[in-house]
Amino acid sequence: MFLLKKMSLCVIAVAIATAGVAQKKTIDQKVDSVLKLMTLDEKIGQMNQYNGDWDATGPITKDGDKQNQIKKGMLGSMLNVTGVAHTKTLQEIAMQSRLKIPLLFGQDVIHGYRTIFPLPLAEAASWDLPLIEKSARIAAVEASAAGVHWTFAPMVDIARDPRWGRVMEGAGEDTYLGSLIAAARVKGFQGKGLGNTDAVMACVKHFAAYGAAVGGRDYNSVDMSLRQLNEVYLPPYKAAVEAGAATVMNSFNDVNGIPATANHYLLRTLLKGQWNFKGFVVSDWGSVGEMINHGYAKDNYDAAMLAANAGCDMDMESRSYIQHLAKLVKEGKVKMSVIDDAVKRILHKKFEMGLFDDPYKFCNTTREQQQWNNVENITASREMAKHSIVLLKNDAVNGAPLLPLSKHSKTIALVGPLVKAIRENLGFWSYSWPDDTARIVTLWQGMQNKISNDSKLLYAKGCNINDQNKDGFEEAVNIAKQADVVVLSVGEAPDMTGEAKSRSNLHLPGVQEALIQAIAATGKPVILLISAGRPLVFNDAADHVSSIMYTWWLGTQAGNAIADVLFGDYNPSARLPVSFPRSEGQIPVYYNHYSTGRPAKNDSDVNYVSAYIDELNSPKYYFGYGLSYTQFQYGAITLSKTNLKGNETLQASVEVTNTGNADGEETVQLYIRDIIGSVVRPVKELKGFKKVWLQKGAHQTITFNITVNDLKFYNDALQYNWEPGAFQVMIGRNAGDVQTVNINWSR
Ligand code: BGC
Q1: What secondary structure does DSSP assign to 429-458, as a single string?
Q2: Is the CB of 501 under 6 A from ligand 1?
Q3: 104: which strand partners?
Q4: For ligand 1, what atom is nearest to the CA of residue 152?
Q5: Angle at CA 639, nearest 5°, toward 635 and 642?
């Protein structure tokens, strides 16, 4: 008996070693040879993921002996374990398990790891795909150097409701832009491909339609037609999968009554079926067990059965799989083939990552240290931040636009609760390293770095972000009166957006609106900076201050980037990736809505049309909107043809001229409307955009090539196709400012 056991262990050791190194074997063959050696318990172990909430040196966790479970092969992955020292300690324990299958370490690397970049929504405002990809690349380089194999990003959930706190984590309201950004982020994270030491696995989340939670309340239900699901919400996930995303995460919500975690249609029919996704699916935190609360599973046993059968391969933290799957298999309720498929998918990624060859591949302390304060990464973060700032307003004061500011001979009053804020600049989903305070550039610091000796900065906080205390107003007003210009920095607290941070009131919190009024009443020119993770409502301020910059949360280099734009060292180029509402009652307000049977002709048309009697229909700021320090003039649209047939290509062109006094970048946007469809079509849909940098006085012809692929949609039978007929082609600055021409497209 003893001999037999010893022999079989020898065979296993040889088999695993061969599985790892044999050159000729494909990964599929290697996976199969490992799978053959695994007991049912070990297989289920691979499908189990725990949070790593313990000290690397302490053996016992608060909810069980995880180290012992790793040794027994009961764990495939851990999250929230970072740093070479920590991950190495745990990997060493995994190497003591019978089959020595390496652990995967996952982490929410959402907008940077060590160097924090702007919020994902802010980055989306750049509409700059190469820069967005670079941001994800740098995050992956830094995270992988610290032992992280896998990021739970990108979040690609389309969000039309700014009450939802996680709007900050995605790319906004538009399917087309969102899909491009989803792919760019996946490419950034995964770099030249899994297997490179600086590539982390991407995890597309949250599958699916998490951003459509009813009322914008996080974790709430999602109920929509399959057509809308397929047309508006699913394309970014699909784009991310097509870009090679290694993994997908379930969403917490139910979709049309079925929790996403056990949604056969989403996971088996679409993702693993029609989309041919070869990676693995991880649940969201506890989402398997939460199906009991949904009223979909009776208990954890039931939940494990439903999730595994529907195609959820790994259970994050609910412990339903580890506790119940073995019994479910023995009782025939989950087939062995379901388990094998899940385990193969997980092992495949571990092989692709090269972890079987070297489980400590990501445990190089020299590399970790090199990335700790990498100057190039910090420079890239500043670059991304500059490109993310949206100039919303820039009125003339004394005959000239207030911005950019001069660096000379000015007294500038810096007022507001965020002027000297430090950690706030990082926003939600970022790390607080011990030396953060020294690294983060505040607005105050950024301004000091920029002004010349003959200028002077004054400061008053004015008020806190979110209380009712106005004691600081007097000082702030006095400071403002002594200055030539006031830069007023207000916003939300950074933890007012993010997970579980839905708000029903989108006004500036506390007494900040009153502070703006008090400062504006001094008559001094005011530049308002708004920091937030979502579109806020600030009509009064918008109508009474001269200049407004939306600065979101910009990350480690926030202060420098804001100063770059304020003083014109960078001419702002960002465009809103979401519509900004005038009031909460208007939500959801998004540009690609349907016409309805009684469309309002304009904002003053309210008589028995689809409108509010107490609010305009238009947003405060349109999707795609953003100003520059220069002006761009558009010539008329020219078309290569107006009557097209079948597979022809239409060229739609427009000449754009920089008529202002600065070099600058314009984002030329193409929208299309299908006038009559077998199902109603949106009033316009973004189908292309081009960013063009023009020196002052220069002009360029921008051409869009349009084919029938740009006309396709899901019909009532969920077939994706185009229908001949009349279309409008629109080109312009934003969704509310376009020129329109008509075309016909026949079969
Ligand atoms: C979030 C996910 C995240 C996970 C792990 C969940 O609460 O919804 O987006 O990746 O936690 O931290």
Answers
A1: S----TTHHHHS--HHHHHHHHS-TT-EEE
A2: no
A3: 77
A4: 10
A5: 140
634 sits in which H/E element: strand 632-634
For the chain, give every domain's residue range.
406-564, 632-746
Q: How far apart are CA 166 and CA 170, in angstroms?
A: 7
CA 308 to CA 346: how far, in whole Å? 14
CA 612 to mean position of chain CA atoms: 32
Tell me the C-alpha distance between 704 and 690, whole Å.
9
Query: Up-side HSE of residue 403: CA atoms within 13 Å toward CB?
Result: 32
The pLDDT tens digits of the residues spanning 466-494 come to 999 999 999 999 999 999 999 999 999 99
Q: Strands (DSSP E) along 283-394, which ranges?
A: 315-316, 390-394
Q: What count of other Cβ atoms lies within 10 Å of the Cβ of residue 710? A: 18
Residue 464: strand, helix, or coil: coil
Residue by residue, DSSP assigns 14-82 as: HHHHHHHH-SSS-HHHHHHHHHHH--HHHHHHHTEEEE--S-TT---BTTB-HHHHHHTT--SEEES--
In whole angstroms, how far apart are CA 312 and each of 35, 234, 258, 281, 343?
19, 18, 14, 5, 11
Of 2.60.40.10, 3.40.50.300, 3.10.520.10, 3.30.230.10, the CATH number of 632-746 is 2.60.40.10
Structure tokens at 6: 């010893």
Please tell me if the CB atom of residue 108 comes closer than 6 angstroms to any atom of ligand 1: yes
| Predicted pLDDT of residue 10 | 45
Among protein residues, the one with the nearest Cα to ligand 1's atom 7 is 285
Q: Are 19 and 33 in contact (CB under 8 A)?
A: yes
Ligand 1 atom with the shortest distance to the CA of 252 = 8
CATH topology of domain 406-564: Rossmann fold (3.40.50)
Q: Are 453 and 438 in contact (CB under 8 A)?
A: no
Strand partners, 106: 79, 150
Residues 198, 144 contacting (CB under 8 angstroms)? yes
Pick the catalytic residue from 174, 284, 315, 674: 284
CA angle 686, 689, 694 (to 5 degrees): 150
CA distances from 271 to 265, 268, 277, 278 (A): 8, 6, 6, 9
pTM of the model: 0.96
Give the three-class secondary structure for 105: strand
- Note if 284 is an active site residue: yes
Mutate to test the pocket of ligand 1, among 51, 53, 107, 152 (most ligand atoms within 8 A of CB): 152
- Sign of the torsion angle spanned by Cα atoms 194, 197, 201, 202: negative
Average pLDDT per block of 10 residues along the chain, 747 residues long: 41 51 80 98 98 57 77 96 94 97 98 98 99 98 98 98 98 98 99 98 98 98 97 98 98 98 98 98 98 98 98 97 98 98 98 98 97 96 98 97 91 98 96 88 97 95 98 98 98 97 98 98 98 98 96 98 98 98 98 98 96 97 98 98 98 98 98 98 98 98 98 97 98 98 98
- Give me 46's structure tokens: 């691979």
How many whole angstroms from 284 Cα to the centroid of ligand 1? 6
